[in-house]
Amino acid sequence: MTNNIFSAIDMAQYGINMIVLTEHSNIDKSIKTLKRDITKGLPYGLTKEILYKKLLIKLKSEDNYFTKNVNASYSEKQRWQEFNDDCIIYAALDHILTANPVHLVHPSQYFGNSENTIVNTAQNLKPTLINGIPSFYSKTILH
In terms of pLDDT, which residue wins out, 79 or 119? Predict the structure, then answer.
């Protein structure tokens, strides 16, 4: 069993039927990295705003694919992992560009949301209850 703290990002607010379970530190790292001026590392003309729009289009396409092909999360592990990673990046970008909180699923609700949402239960992990952090990741608690 791991001692890492996990959070589950609810992607429904973006129209994506996905709850992404990740180490909470990955959310923090994504936000901190994307807050810096990343345009130097992007192809010419690509800004955070354009990346934000293009990523949502890609995520909705992948969401549609994995919704129709539920077992693909096991048979196409690389694609599944990229989808998960892109969801984390998108939620972080949304937080930075719109000041919307990153919505986290409470541990008691994690498996309860799975009937309408893709939840990866392969590793039998669930989000950790983090004292002092509300059920959404507010920019007011960032340091």
Answer: 79
